[in-house]
Structures are given as structure tokens and as C-alpha cells.
What does this fold into?
Amino acid sequence: MAFDFKDSRVIVTGGSRGIGRSIALGFAAAGADVSICARGVAALEGTREEVAALGHKVHAATCDLAQEAAIKAYISEAAAALGGVDILVCNASGIDNTGDNWADCFNVDVMAAVRAAAAAEAFLAKSTAGAIVNITSISGMMPSARDPAYAAAKAALINLTTSQAVRLAAQKIRVNAVAPGSIDFPEGYWDRCRVETPDIYAEVRDSIPFKRYGAPDEIANAVMFLASPLASWITGQTLVVDGGQVLRG
It folds into this structure.
């Protein structure tokens, strides 16, 4: 079934590359007007051009999602550009932003989602189909010796999703999350791993029941489902999209 987001106004944080880019393009291809933000100017402009080529209104702005004032300003600017907000997708991750993973992950993965939702709440409440989708990770469902900060932040985001869902239900705003497994895309973590540590890349790939990495479009499809009227009776849930990866721990 094709998604129809005609006349919907969608904000995607961290929307310039990888999963965020695919989400933005997916919504635009389904008829939505889209706003994206990111820190990197070049990638942001490239994705803005791709979205614009689909024939719908697009807004793009640089934003440091670790900064509360910057998030408030961006959401306000995006809402003005789009004429409101129907859907907010919190996708950005702060891992390795500055080298302090604990600060980066909680400032961006968690607090940026808190602040973006707070800034967008009044706009979403005016929508007839207000929805928030947080992008977490299967890392938030298991311990991680390699990246404990990332795992802890993503676990917090899963819990935040349930709390937001309860609090915002009175305003008819649904809140859900998508938990991707290992997703491979150009210049992403697993793409670098493929070049720098091919043994690890192959080991992880072969541990996934479907023997392949996921693609950003597969996450975008799950996000659009949860944001769509097809999921009108779903809130407070985390949808795992990982080819069965989490089943093997």
C-alpha cells in the first residue's frame, strides 16, 4: 500500500544523510512538505535539492541539536516555513560529535528529542493527525561493552517515547519509536567498518539472520507507517526493524 502524506508538514532532525535523508525523501515522495536540519552544510544542501526535485515545499537549516536555543529557533522557523507541523521525526545522534560520548549521546539522542518535541508540541496539537517518531536503536535493548553511552541513551529514548505517548495523548498526539539494527549507507559507521575493519563487518553481517545489513529506506518505511493513519491506534510503541538481529543478542 502506497503512503499518502499530501498536505502533511514533516520535520526531520538529522535529515541530511543516511536514515534521516531516506526518511525526508520518503515523506516528500508521498506528497509531504518537509523541513530538515543538520550540522553539515554540504550534505544538508544536497538533500534539500533532492527533496525539492520531488516537487514539494522544502525547508532546510543548519542546527546544532545539542543546543536548546538552536532547537527552539529551528522548530519555530520550520513551522513558519511549512505553515505548521503534523509530524516530527527525531533522528539525530550525537555519537562521536566531540569525543565525549556520554555528553554527546545524551545531549543529542535524548535531550534533542525532548526539546524538539517541546518546541513542536503547540503546532502538533493543532494538527488533526499529530505524530512524533523517535529513532532509537536495538542497542538500547541490550548491554554494550563497546558503546555503553550510546546504548544507555537509546534505552532512555525508548522509555521517553512511552512517557511522551502518555503525556501527549490528551492532545491527540501519537508518539512511537523505530529501533533500527545495523544499517549500511555511504559514509556511515558500517560503511567505514567495511573498509577499515572488514573482518568485523563480515562477522556482524553474518550474525544477522538474513545475512545482510539493513538499508535506510527500510527504516523510512517503518517511520512512515507509524506516522500514517494506518497506525492511528498505535502509540507508545517501539518497532524493531533489524532483520532479526536483536534475536541473537
About this structure: The chain has a mean pLDDT of 95.
